[in-house]
Write a structure and sequence with these properties.
- The protein is of the alpha+beta class and 107 residues long.
- It is 22% helix and 27% strand.
- It is built from 3 helices and 4 strands.
């Protein structure tokens, strides 16, 4: 049995930081391309990750029939940085005794 050929597609990896959003993509023809935008720039775009994806697909796409997006991985340091810098709203976590180990397990 042979596998059917897979359709060429896009693959994206996005890191949304407090200052910049970095995007690395593999185009349908296998090229590695990148973009870097300010994470906040409301005069030019609503969302940096979406804008970077749009720009890369427009610049390196295959014309009118754009290939689909097969994979999009998104990571962010915004929440981690807010915790480390002790910024943001104060909050409390309340859980039942039966789930106390969930914090140690990490789920």
């Amino acid at each position: 049995m042979t596998d059917a050929p897979s359709r060429p597609s896009w693959r994206f990896a996005i890191d949304r930081g407090g200052t910049f959003t970095d995007v690395v993509a593999t185009t349908p023809d296998g090229r590695l391309v990148t973009d870097k935008l300010l994470s906040e720039n409301p005069e030019h775009y609503e969302d940096a990750a979406s804008e970077a994806v749009r720009r890369l697909m427009a610049a390196y796409g295959e014309g009118d029939e754009a290939a689909p997006i097969a994979e999009m991985r998104v990571g962010t340091t915004v929440a981690t940085n807010a915790l480390l810098e002790r910024k943001g709203a104060r909050l409390a976590l309340a859980i039942t005794r039966g789930f106390a180990d969930a914090l140690r397990i990490g789920t």
